[in-house]
Design a protein that fits this description.
The complex is a heterodimer of chains A (about 425) and B (about 575).
Chain A (H helix, E strand, L loop, with lengths): L5 E11 L5 E12 L4 E5 L6 H8 L7 E6 L2 E2 L7 E4 L11 H12 L3 H14 L15 H13 L5 E5 L7 H16 L7 E6 L2 H7 L2 E5 L6 E6 L11 H24 L13 H12 L6 E3 H8 L3 H13 L3 E4 L2 E4 L1 H8 L2 H15 L1 H12 L4 E3 H9 L4 H17 L4 E3 L4 E3 L5
Parallel strand pairs in A: 3-8, 3-9, 6-7, 7-8
Antiparallel strand pairs in A: 1-2, 1-4, 4-5, 9-10, 11-13, 12-13, 14-16, 15-16
Helix pairs in contact in A: 2-3, 2-4, 3-4, 6-7, 7-10, 8-11, 12-13, 14-15
Chain B lengths: L17 H21 L6 H6 L9 H32 L1 H16 L2 H15 L4 H29 L3 H9 L4 H36 E4 L2 E4 L3 H10 L3 H30 L16 H8 L1 H18 L15 H32 L3 H37 L2 H15 L7 H11 L3 H4 L2 H4 L3 H13 L3 H9 L4 H35 L1 E4 L2 E4 L3 H11 L2 H34 L3
Antiparallel strand pairs in B: 1-2, 3-4
The chains are: A alpha/beta (about 425), B mainly alpha (about 575).
Chain lengths: ~425, ~575
């Protein structure tokens, strides 16, 4: 066995914060990719998995630790590492053929060689006949095929995929996955290893040989799961379902439970979940067939929600003590059940009570407003406080979340023109 | 697999198509035009005096050709400036800090000021030759075109989507390659729109730049501008008419031969990928594209161009620059220091130059005159807004009207104020009006159209759904204007008003002094001051006047327009 394709050791990465400090996004990452593997990086938004992919691609440098590709440290975009992008990243002013040729032109290859390889890649990805089309003339699926052709044509050793199917509809995504796995299984792809970033659990189980689960804030690898199922895999296979369930359990065991353990404080980042989604999910859970308790994978499947949609709601419901999440299940609390029975006004009152009791930031804003003589306070004041503890984006999101909740629960009002919180709604 | 042949293989049976014939005609015409128009460049200046411009309309085609050539050369220079200056500003944080404010200021310096200050320098470059005067004129036209193009390019470069940048880095494009394959294409549609605006705007200054007269130095270059100047001097109304007609024809030709093909060609660079939008077409572009001769003739150039894209060094890894925290502060300090030293030097230079020949009282006078011009600009912008916002909304909500009005407004924007002097001056003299008031409208003559353009664009961008909702709730009259129309066009209106206001300041130098034959009217204002000092060749006072005007423009932009723009952008931008 030769050296590993890719070796990541002790990797740590920070982003600069507004106040000059550093925000830790990736910590203690150890990863080795051997030849012939598809490795999945699975986690929620904010787990740093896309950042890790960019570090591997040499688009950024890690703050600490090493990324080694075929025994050489990665100091910049390396030949032999090609990427497929979530939003396709095609150049709209180049035709399909020109898009595919671009990477070869940058290599300075002779013209006939470029043409030959580009046409071969176009053939391989099923784009025959589309050579002179512009990306805007293509459907999403066809566009992503161009993305694949463009990456494959440079004959990379490692193919990096950044949620390549998430911008496509369900059927198209499935076709592309199957086509890719078939080519990969038949050894037709000029690549030796694949790293796939995804937040879709089933996609990870369907495609990967190994799955690394990432935690949030900062991103750490919390678990590694080997997938030994033979290709082609069947989503309905009991072993497949077991693996999906196992990942759900692993991911829920970590995130929301950990949140309650280490007490929510004023400075906890809050998920942006609308009150409508809240009510909707509580009602769904209370009704048949769930009657207060649901298996998360089943619920996700039923509601067509991916973990990025479902987990924040579950987390928020848990914060409000409307539900509990454990072992891959979500269960309504008594308060949650009570919520379903109430009319709009009483729901708002209950929502307000839970919020002021269990969300310290909301209670804090309310207290400040009550203490001030005129009962108003600028938004920037709270934003500044939050920014000392989290990234600017997170602070903004958290404050927006709490503003929306405060409005729904009528705990406080906010006027965007003046940027002021106040106790009174306009009467 | 489809066989792909990289040349046009329409069969050899017909060696030439009609497209070839048309293409050859077009290109030959262009070559002849360039040849005749540039023939005079190396003649001595005395030649100009021997054959002074005449008002015979027979000369107009030649004059038009020469004016056109000047504008084209200036446009080429503006592009060169745009590609270098704006790129540097967008790619280097350090350079950006200095270059962007500098561009802000350059934009505020009155264009005619550039002429009066630089003409001597350019004449000295080619002593005794027409070339020097041509340089000065071209430079003046350049200054009326370059700044907004550079701004647009800079802003486009700043908004290239991250994924595209990452893709080009992942596929290891060389910097030269990614500039031409990623940056320029992305910026192209916006840049072409700005080139059209620049071309319109520069007509206004062609008149002034072809009849250069600073103190004792007077040079009249043959062209449409100098023709108009002469017609005004000789009170020849018919000649003024001929000149306007010529301008109309030239603007039409520009539109058909240059801009329409460019717009149609640049359509593929549109970043929004929705299909279904009707693509702009151009017959000239069709001819060029379908012609095999053009294809064959341009192929060597295309190959050469392609050759520059090939990485000739082994394509080594481009290391990611990673400035550690501690060094960032040091760099900021260093660049801060360099900029301060440069600024101090520049301040000392200009202060000592101005103070040499200027008393403190002069400064006070110019500031006061600036206030007079400011008052005019404010009133005129308010008046123009009151007229053109409703008209623009009316036109913009009716697609057919918009199609009709847009080109007309574009022509009117190119209309130099000078050609209206005869009418305005005669009226003021005949009715014994106060020139302080009645000369003012000339200032906004060319610039008010920017308000109209932008409001039309804003009104046509109002989604049909919103208009339907308004109709559905029976929102009419003043309520409709207040709640739907005005908020929807506000961001667009502000953009237009900024251009109009800056342009009016610029135009004040021409508009506050008007003459028709021996009749000469003056309004009190900073524009008139600069014009007078230019006539007198009073360099220190010219520079003072220009500096004060720039100061006014910059302050108004920073204190009034910028906050208003940010507010409108935040609050009323749809989507």
């Amino acid at each position: 066995m030769s050296t590993a394709l890719l070796d990541i050791h002790g990797l740590r990465h920070t982003f600069p914060k507004a106040d000059g400090g550093d925000l830790l996004v990736l910590d203690g990452i150890e990863l080795e990719v051997a030849q012939g593997q598809i490795v999945g990086l699975l986690g929620r938004t904010g787990s740093g998995k896309s950042t890790l992919l960019r570090l591997i691609a040499g688009l950024a440098q890690p703050s600490d630790g090493t990324v080694t590709y075929l025994g050489q440290p990665v100091n910049g975009p390396a030949p032999g590492i090609a990427m497929v992008f979530q939003g396709f990243a095609l150049f709209p002013w180049l035709t399909v053929l020109e898009n595919v040729q671009l990477g070869l032109e940058a290599l300075g290859l002779p013209e006939p060689e470029i043409r030959k390889r580009a046409l071969a890649a176009i053939d391989l990805t099923g784009l025959d006949g589309y050579e002179s089309a512009y990306p805007r003339e293509l459907s999403g699926g066809m566009r992503q095929r161009v993305g694949f052709a463009r990456a494959l044509v440079v004959h990379p050793n490692i193919l990096l995929m950044d949620e390549p199917f998430s911008a496509l509809d369900v059927l198209t995504a499935e076709t592309l996955r199957t086509d890719f796995l078939e080519l990969w299984g038949d050894g037709k792809l000029p690549i030796k290893g694949v790293i796939l970033v995804t937040h879709n659990i089933e996609e990870a189980v369907l495609m990967c040989d190994r799955i690394l689960l990432f935690s949030n804030n900062p991103g750490r690898i919390i678990r590694e799961i080997a997938v030994d199922l033979r290709q082609p895999r069947n989503r309905l296979d009991p072993q497949f379902r077991d693996l999906v369930e196992k990942i759900y359990v692993a991911m829920t065991a970590r995130t929301p439970a950990a949140q309650t353990e280490r007490q929510i404080t004023i400075n906890t980042a809050l998920p942006r979940v609308s009150a409508n989604l809240f009510s909707g999910l509580i009602e769904t859970l209370a009704a048949a067939p769930y009657s207060g308790r649901a298996d998360l994978p089943v619920l996700a499947d039923e509601l067509h929600m991916e973990i990025d949609d479902l987990f924040p709601v579950a987390e928020a419901m848990q914060m409000f003590h409307f539900a509990e999440v454990e072992g891959g299940d979500i269960k309504l609390t008594d308060t949650g059940k009570q919520f379903v029975e109430l009319g709009t006004d009483d729901r708002k009152k209950l929502f307000q009570r839970q919020m002021l009791t269990y969300i310290p930031l909301a209670a804090h804003i309310r207290r400040v407003l009550q203490e001030r003589a005129n009962h108003v306070a600028p938004r920037s004041r709270f934003l500044d406080e939050l920014e000392d503890h989290m990234s600017t984006d997170d602070a903004e999101h958290t404050l927006r979340a709490v503003t929306a909740w405060g409005r729904f629960g009528e705990a406080f009002a906010y006027d965007d023109d003046s940027g002021m919180f106040s106790l009174e709604n306009p009467t | 697999m489809r066989v792909f042949v990289p040349i046009s293989v329409g069969g050899w049976a017909r060696l030439f198509s009609r497209w070839d014939v048309l293409a050859v005609l077009l290109i030959l015409g262009l070559l002849v035009f360039l040849g005749t128009a540039s023939r005079h460049l190396f003649q001595p200046l005395a030649e100009l005096q021997r054959s002074p411009p005449s008002l015979d309309p027979v000369n107009l085609p030649e004059y038009a050709a020469r004016t056109t050539l000047r504008m084209l050369v200036a446009m080429a220079l503006s592009l060169l400036f745009t590609f270098t200056y704006a790129t540097l500003a967008a790619k280097s944080r350090r350079a950006e800090r200095l270059l962007i404010p500098m561009l802000d200021i350059l934009q505020s310096v009155p264009i005619l000021g550039f002429i009066s200050v630089t003409v001597v320098f350019f004449m000295a470059l080619a002593p005794g030759k027409v070339l020097g005067a041509e340089f000065a004129a071209i430079f003046a036209i350049f200054t009326s075109q370059a700044w907004n193009m550079a701004f647009s390019f800079y802003q486009s470069l700043r908004t290239v989507p991250t994924e595209l940048i990452e893709a080009s880095r992942n596929f290891r494009l060389t910097p030269w390659m990614s500039f031409w394959r990623v940056d320029v294409p992305f910026a192209m549609p916006q840049l072409i729109w700005n080139m059209m605006m620049s071309m319109s705007g520069s007509w206004f200054f062609v008149v002034a730049s072809e009849a250069i007269s600073v103190g004792n130095t007077t040079v009249t270059l043959p062209g449409v501008g100098s023709y108009i100047a002469l017609a005004i001097q000789q009170q020849n109304l018919r000649a003024v008419g001929w000149a306007i007609g010529t301008m109309l024809v030239v603007i039409l030709i520009y539109d058909q031969v240059l801009f329409r093909p460019l717009v149609a060609w640049a359509d593929r660079f549109r970043f929004e990928q929705e299909p279904g939008i009707i693509a702009p077409r151009s017959w000239v572009l069709d001819i060029l594209r379908r012609s095999r001769i053009v294809d064959r003739m341009t192929r060597p150039f295309a190959a050469l161009w392609h050759y520059t894209m090939i990485p000739h060094r082994p394509n080594v890894e481009v290391a990611v620059k990673h400035a550690p925290q501690t060094r960032r502060g040091w760099i900021a300090f260093q660049s801060g220091l360099i900029v301060s030293v440069l600024a101090a030097l520049a301040l000392w230079q200009s202060a000592s130059f101005i103070l040499e020949g200027i008393k403190l009282a002069d400064v006070g006078t110019t500031l006061l005159l600036g206030l007079a011009t400011l008052a005019r600009v404010v009133v005129l912008i308010a008046l123009a807004s009151a007229i053109w916002v409703p008209v623009g909304v009316w036109v913009g909500t009716r697609p057919y009207a918009a199609l009709l009005v847009q080109p007309v407004a574009q022509f009117l924007a190119a209309f130099p104020a000078n050609v209206l002097f005869p009418i305005v001056v005669s009226l003021i003299v005949a009715w014994k009006l106060n020139p302080n008031i009645w000369l003012s409208p000339l200032m906004i003559l060319g610039t008010q159209w920017y308000i109209l353009f932008n409001v039309i664009a804003g009104a046509s961008a109002l989604p049909a759904e919103l208009r339907a909702a308004g109709a559905n709730f029976r929102i009419r009259g003043w309520l409709w204007w207040r709640r739907i129309a005005l908020p929807a066009v506000l961001p667009y209106y502000v953009t237009g008003a900024i251009t109009a206001s800056g342009g009016s300041w610029n135009a004040s130098i021409v508009a506050e002094v008007a003459s028709w034959g021996n009749e000469r009217l003056e309004a009190k204002g900073l524009g008139a001051y600069i014009a007078q000092q230019t006539d007198a060749g009073n360099f220190h006072h010219i520079v003072l006047g220009i500096a004060v005007m720039s100061l006014y423009v910059v302050i108004i932009n920073r204190v009034f327009w910028r906050p208003l723009y940010l507010y409108a952008e935040r609050k009323f931008r749809l989507g």
